[in-house]
Amino acid sequence: MTIKRRDFLLFMGASAGTVALTSCLAGNDIPKTGPKVDAKETGIGFKPVKGPMPLETDSLISTKQGEDYRRYEVIDDIVLPEGFTYDIIAAWGDKIGNSRFGYNNDYLSFIETGTDEGFLSINFEYISGKIWMETYPQVIGKSLPFDEVKAAAAKTEGKINAFALPDNDPVKGKIKEICQEALLDLGLGAISIRKDSDGKWTRTNSKADRRITGIAGLEDKRYLKITGPATAVLRKDKGKGYIDGLSDRIIGTFANCAGGTTPWGTVLSAEENFQDQVPEPVYPDGTAFKPEALPFAIADSGIEGLGNVFGLAGNKYGWMVEIDPANPNDYGTKHSWLGRFRHEAVAVKAVAEKPIAVYSGCDRRGGHIYKFISKGIVKDIENKANSGLMSDGMLYAAVFEPDGTGKWIALEPKTPVNPVLPSIVEGNLVTLPKRPEGGIFEIKTDAEATEFKQKFATLGDLYQGSAIEKQGAILIDAHYAANAIGATTTARPEDLALATDGSVYIAFTSGTPSSDGGPDKRVFKGPKGETPWEYGWIVQLKEDGDDPASLTFKWTSFAMGGEPAEGGAGFSNPDNLEFDQNGNLWLVTDMSTGKHNQALPSRVDKEGKPLSQGDIQGIFGNNSMWVMPTTGANAGKAYQFGIGPIECELTGPFFTPDNQTLFLSVQHPGEQNGTRKDKALQTRKFAMKTTDGKDFIQERQVPIGSNWPGNKSNNPPKPAVVVIRRLDGKAISAV
Q1: In 493-526, which positions are buried (b, 16+ CB within 10 angstroms) versus exposed (e)?
Q2: Which of 570, 680, 690, 699 has the greatest number of beta carbons closer than 10 A?
Q3: Could you tell me if 499 and 473 lie in one domain?
Q4: 575 phi, psi to nearest 5 deg
Q5: Which of 484, 519, 542 corresponds to the end of one domain?
Q6: Residue 141 backbone class (left: φ over 0; alpha: ψ -120 to 50; beta: rest)
Q7: Is 521 among the domain residues?
């Protein structure tokens, strides 16, 4: 039975996934018919590309799907519809000002400064340690002491508290050299670009081109700033935990994942998985754990703890960073009223004569949706002085009720403690602030939640200091504070996008629980009520009265990931979202690299038991890009626009104001298998299903490793930013 989106009013699932691609190479017998979709009838403006999985939007009758999809070839390139092309505008290692283009480019934002010209800001999220170490000498043109440091670390199980080593210790010097280069490849960048008469975008290399790296300020004294109550904590001379001696000055920004663009032309950059580089836990007064809590770690598989050797204070990371790309003297401001957690999603709602609302999400299993409401109101929506509104207000966390209603609860000292109950959480695990010791602890029963509630009456009982310091400590510990007051644990919110009608679309990527926690299983369900649901959802949130300051809302499920045969739209793990000029919702997927094209000869194990959703994700192929109309007869249907190279993630889609250009990041191609050697290829079998659930076996050709973007034999894979355009020069979604 195929269950369609319109049959659901509320949440019906959560996920982590991806999709693959096809080609028409001469000399093989791979079917070349592809989707039979009319671009004008759908209103999306293009004929979809063919992925590895039969889709409802293919318009192929079920009896032909098995034959048409029985052979499939994965391509190590960006696959786009007919009539489209892409150009590479920058790749890892390219020069930016006095620095270089970083690694794993993510969110993109184009700020127009004139006709067909402006600044492109770029997030650099993390290094894929294995492939970064493998390709660094070839791409950057120098070597680093990886082998020597690995050998030293192996003596202590791969970890070294480098911060505690004497400054004259040669191992510390080598660790510092590696970490400095790795942090140089993280953070933010801004480059000036212009479109030429042929429709191609080129760099103009203005004096404003610059990098704000993971070690900005360490040597150049270009520290980042911070606003809001957390400044009171950071300025303390002494406290329960570690204080770096820099007061409210901050060295660098890293883990910069998704982001958003304000109506007044600044860019918000989200620090997400900062806990991989500095300690996340804090003490009741908001001070950080010591650097030794997260030592430097290195092995063939990767590198972590980059902040350890420099003594970076963990409470200074995990914030939302704002920059003005056009201002060469702006090196970033972290707004503490927006909270400290694993930021990814962000959207700004600005209405004249109203407070601004800044929506954000914590991308962790069991993370929350947040909203900041400013104390001041907007006068002129395009005035850059609006940035000052983020310096004062209140942060709220969302409660999603199973009936489609919701409310916002304040993260302030007087808010009652009312912990999330483990019984309603997938995996039955909730983390709470540990008192008086500091840090966190786990509860697994409702009785433990009740005991915690009886011990602490309000959030103010969990944190210490003056009134402003206590508020700052709550914001620094926002995720655990939100758990303590009963905010809904969700399914990895990875992006938010503001629609023209004022509603907010949220991409929830995966409903599978982990040691971090899990989603509310009353809310995040599969098509038949199953939990967990791995493949993800897109949800629409509407504030009551369309008021940015409203404390109540309604929510509905707009689309669901998963196989069409099981009620899904055909994609897995929706991630970044973007609207085009026609109101179509564009999305990219984020399936874990190890799942890409993972062979699936059978859907049952040796004992005949069905495999889990995570075990069958190879059916979706590579990560991909999709378009979904939000109105009309095709609302909620997913059409495949593009497919990424091998083992990559597509991120940060962003349209120019005229919609003639789509900027897109290609992150970590070849992340698992590295450089593709001599066009290595493997044939794998997949137990697939037609849209109505008929079984068939697909034979799929899969490249081993990647050579993108050079696309020549044995080229090293590199993250890069591309510019997608139509060959006829029309808008991307022109019909």
Answers
A1: bbbbbbbeeebbbbbbbbbbbeebbbbbbbbbbb
A2: 570
A3: no
A4: -125, -115
A5: 484
A6: left
A7: yes
Confidence check: pLDDT of 154 > 70: yes
pTM above 0.90, yes or no: yes
The residue-averaged pLDDT of 441-455 equals 98
- The reported pLDDT for the residue numbered 37 is 59
Give me the number of domains the chain comprises: 2
Of 467, 484, 501, the position where a domain reaches its end is 484
Q: Which two tokens stand for residue 526?
A: 């599969």
φ/ψ (deg, to 5) at 546: 50, 35
Structure-block tokens of residue 11: 């949440």
Domain span at residue 424 reads: 413-484
**Helix or strand holding residue 10 (H, E):** none
Instruction: Using alpha carbons only, give the angle 263, 265, 270 rounded to the nearest 5 degrees.
Output: 90
Question: Amino acid identity of 717?
Answer: P
Convert the pLDDT of each residue in 497-549 to its tens digit. Answer: 999 999 999 999 999 999 999 999 999 999 999 999 999 999 999 999 999 99
Q: What percent of the chain has pLDDT over 90?
A: 92
263, 327: one domain: yes
State the Cα–Cα distance between residues 160 and 199, nearest whole angstrom: 51
Q: Computed from CA positions of residues 72, 76, 80, 84, in that sequence, does the dihedral angle turn out positive or negative?
A: negative
Dist CA 328 CA 206 (whole Å): 10
* Encoded amino acid at 196, one letter: D
Using one digit for the tens of pLDDT, what is the confidence trace for 674-715? 999 999 999 999 999 999 999 999 999 999 999 999 999 999
Handedness of CA 40, 45, 46, 48 (dihedral sign): negative
